[in-house]
Design a protein that fits this description.
Blueprint: H1 5-8, H2 11-27, E1 31-38, E2 44-55, E3 61-69, H3 71-93, E4 97-102, E5 107-110, H4 112-118, H5 130-133, H6 138-152, E6 156-163, E7 169-180, E8 186-195, H7 197-243, H8 249-274, E9 283-286, H9 287-301, E10 306-312, E11 318-321, H10 323-339, E12 346-355, H11 360-365, E13 377-381, E14 387-391, E15 400-407, H12 414-417, H13 437-447, E16 451-457, E17 461-469, E18 492-496, H14 500-512, E19 516-520, H15 523-532, E20 537-543, H16 551-561, E21 567-571, H17 579-584, E22 589-592, H18 597-608
Parallel strand pairs: 10-12, 18-19, 18-20, 20-21, 21-22
Antiparallel strand pairs: 1-2, 2-3, 4-5, 4-8, 6-7, 7-8, 9-11, 12-15, 13-14, 14-16, 15-17, 16-17
Length: about 600
């Protein structure tokens, strides 16, 4: 080696070495240390040296000792440290949870990912068994399967769900592998856990969507025929209600048939709405009269022991949407509120008011904390008591319209609150509820770019708040029809429908309103009848789904000869035909069955300006 301190030692180590020598001379104790030394060729080597101060005969002091080349050892140690650091980084920062247990099942190590999932501290985990940590049955399952890995030495993979310290359920893919010595002895079990909680939730949503698609297809398949049957039944029953003495028992029977028919119509509409297969034309309208009409229907279907009170903070409530669907929201929320009374006395308060864009509730409903904003459901505790549920997300900071339906019932239990919007979820007995009512409400509100807030407290009742965007000033509001008097008409009207009962009901109903009626039983026959006296017809009512020709095509043929002739298109169900498409294709009006002859007669009168 080169001679001389500065030449011999690495510059970064030299001062430390000199200080060591100095301390050794003063204390009389040997100096030991590791340093980098330079050879004559300039190569850097690691050395271990041990020196002590020796006093010579001339009273001078020298450092006497040995140097040992430990470069090879140092390289190995550095490699081991680097390897350990890499392992530790991989262990702690892995996206998977990792937990290592000995043969007795005690935890010897757990990474940060796993500890964060479980809301545990390392000190309360190491040295414990899984049975100690997981108080539910999952701890016993894990220990049993760990024992199998220890006995067989084989890897085991399975899906496992267990609770964290905060009670949150975590679903994982758990891969267990044996910990082996170089000789092949099993010393423990290493578990790699991949959190699949969110993917399982998405999978469940996909399954639910597929189920809803199947329900929608089934509903769509029967809706056309069912609505035709329902239309004929309700139409003929309407004649009985018109003709019978209102004080007679027979009129009461007919009224009950009408109520049952309306419920059946609503149920079909709910299934189609929930499965998103029904038409959803949007127009500007004032929600106040729509709410009034819905509440009138609701009062007729709820028991006398339930009182409905209205509190309107606005005279007009302009929105853009589907009035039928929002009426359905009010009906469903009203029925749900009545269920809270369990047959006893109760009060339902319905209010409408305008909410400023800076309102804290609107701020909460604009939160983007959820990955699936429109579908989110967040439940939180309220101060001083009660629970709050937020459903859906509002888009911007504009003012909103708030429709509230509050009851003074018993409140909603916490375990029910988070699930009540789930399809087919119901707390009612078998055959007393479909579990679709609130699901439909949520679907309709979401489709209107709205959101919901539910507040409830045990023994104090529940309030459902629906928040909808207000319509802009440029939106033209549709006027409500005047339904105070029976419409009257005259002249010759053509009815084309392949359902005999529907055609007969419409024919009789229109004749009772003053029209003369001819009936075609399919598209081909209807056009033949039309061509026999093209100039004599005042209007036509045509079904969409018929043999020989579709209703919209029949109207097209009629319009070629009589473009001035009002034509109304009706259908029991169509997943492709909307009101706008019908109007664009030549129809003057469009109705979904079941629809009464009175409603069609009123519309026909409007088109004819009678």
């Amino acid at each position: 080696m080169a001679q001389g301190g500065r030449e011999l030692y690495h510059p970064e180590d030299y001062e430390r070495l000199r200080q060591g020598y100095r301390d050794s001379r003063l204390s009389g104790k040997p100096y030991e240390g590791t340093h980098r030394a330079r050879t004559k060729s300039g190569e850097i080597r690691w050395v271990y040296e041990s020196h002590r101060a020796v006093e010579r005969t001339d009273n001078s002091v020298i450092m006497e000792g040995v140097l040992i080349d430990i470069t090879a050892q140092r390289v190995v140690e550095d490699a081991v440290r680097e390897s350990e650091a890499r392992f530790r980084s991989l262990f702690e920062n892995a996206p998977a949870g990792i937990i290592i247990k000995d043969r007795e099942g005690r935890v010897t190590a757990a990474n940060d990912t796993f500890l964060n999932w479980m809301d545990w501290d390392r000190d309360e985990v190491v040295g414990k068994t899984v049975r100690d940590l997981l108080k539910d049955n999952s701890g016993s399952v894990v220990e049993e399967e760990d024992r199998e890995v220890l006995e067989t030495g084989k890897t085991k993979v399975r899906e496992l769900t267990f609770p964290s310290a905060s009670g949150r359920l975590i679903t994982t893919t758990n891969m267990r592998a044996p910990m082996l010595t170089p000789e092949g002895d099993v010393t423990g079990v290493c578990s790699f856990l991949i959190d699949i909680t969110e993917s399982k939730a998405l999978e469940a949503q996909l399954q639910q969507a597929q189920k809803m698609e199947a329900v929608g297809r089934l509903a769509g398949g029967i809706a056309h025929d069912f609505n035709n049957l329902l239309g004929a039944m309700m139409g003929f029953n309407a004649f009985l209600m018109q003709d019978l003495d209102q004080k007679s028992p027979q009129h009461n029977y007919a009224s009950r048939i009408d109520q049952a028919g309306r419920r059946a119509k609503q149920l079909v509409a709910q299934i189609l709405t929930f499965s998103r297969m029904g038409p959803t034309e949007r127009k500007g309208f004032d929600l106040v009269p729509v709410v009034d009409e819905a509440l009138n229907l609701l009062r007729g279907s709820l028991p006398a022991s339930t009182q409905i009170i209205t509190e309107y903070g606005v005279d007009r409530a302009p929105i853009v949407g589907n009035s039928g669907q929002l009426s359905q929201v009010l009906m469903n929320l009203g029925v749900n509120a009545n269920d809270a009374f369990d047959g006893g006395d109760g009060q339902i308060t319905v209010s409408i008011d305008r909410v400023h864009g800076s309102d804290p509730v609107l701020d909460a409903l604009r939160s983007t904390s959820s990955n699936l904003q429109k579908e989110r459901v967040e439940v939180t505790e309220m101060v001083p008591r009660g629970l709050q549920l937020l459903s859906g997300t509002l888009a911007d900071g504009s003012d909103c319209l708030r429709i509230s339906v509050a009851d003074n019932g018993s409140g909603i239990a916490p375990d029910v609150l988070a699930s009540m919007f789930d399809p087919f979820f119901t707390t009612k007995e078998m055959r007393k509820g479909t579990g679709l009512g609130l699901s439909v409400v949520r679907t309709i509100v979401s489709s209107h770019e709205g959101a919901m807030r539910v507040t409830t407290a045990a023994g104090e009742g529940t309030t459902f708040e629906v928040y909808l965007p207000l319509a802009g000033r440029s939106v033209e509001l549709r006027r409500s029809d005047d339904v105070s008097a029976m419409p009257k008409g005259h002249g010759l009207v053509l009815v084309i429908d392949d359902e005999n009962d529907v055609a007969d009901m419409l024919s009789i109903g229109l004749e009772r309103l003053g029209y003369e009626v001819a009936v075609g039983r399919d598209g081909k026959e209807g056009l033949e009848i039309f061509r026999e006296a093209e100039d004599d017809w005042r209007g036509a009512i045509v079904d969409q789904v018929m043999p020989e020709a579709r209703g919209i095509d029949v109207i097209g043929e009629i319009k070629k000869q009589r473009p001035d002739m009002p034509c109304i298109l009706c259908t029991g169900y169509s997943d492709t035909l909307t009101e706008q498409k019908a109007l664009d294709s030549g129809a003057d009006a469009f109705f979904l069955k079941p629809v009464t002859a009175e409603t069609l007669g009123r519309k026909l009168g409007d088109l004819l300006s009678d």
